[in-house]
UniProtKB/TrEMBL annotation:
Protein name from the UniProt record: Membrane protein
Organism per entry: Mammaliicoccus stepanovicii
Residue span(s) of domain DUF4064: 2-111
Transmembrane stretches, start-end: 7-31, 70-92, 104-131
Sorted UniProt keywords: Membrane, Transmembrane, Transmembrane helix
Xref: InterPro entries: DUF4064
Amino acid sequence: MKRTGEYTLLIIGLIFSIIGIVLSVFFKFAIKTEDFKVQFENEFNNQIQQSGDIPEGVSANEMLNLIQSLTTFSIIVLIISILLAVFAIVFIKRRRVLAAIFSILAGLVSLLAFNILSLLLFIIAGIMLLVRKNKSDNQFEEAAFQNNDNLNHDTHNGYGSDFNNEKTHDVVKDEVKKNKNNDDPYIY
């Protein structure tokens, strides 16, 4: 079964996660510059003076360290989310339920980095993978029984009385095998 919708959602979610990593890395390097540190300290001190509340034990340097550690955390979380989404893409064709689990986990992990767009896309793709079932082999067997019933109906009505019932059964079996081989994407 084609899973174009799931592929598309997962790839768009991956793109948003990659954009999140790029922005986080850029922000992490921007925080380390001296200009940013000086400007941040001035703004931090101005905000404290305007509000009148002086937090105990909180300085501008501690806030910068906290922001840097949160940025590092978001980069790590987004990398984990990307890996889970790649695993989901790899397993879509062969193991639909496992791909759904990886997709939903990727969405939940991306929530930790506040990557809401990727969260929604990964969760929707995971739900689609769980809900949409693969074509089963029973469809081919049902088609064979329908063909066999049609042939038997024709022989009883006199339309195909010159056919041997065993031969028609063999023909139907061969037709089912052909259909299975034609629909199997891994047989060349």
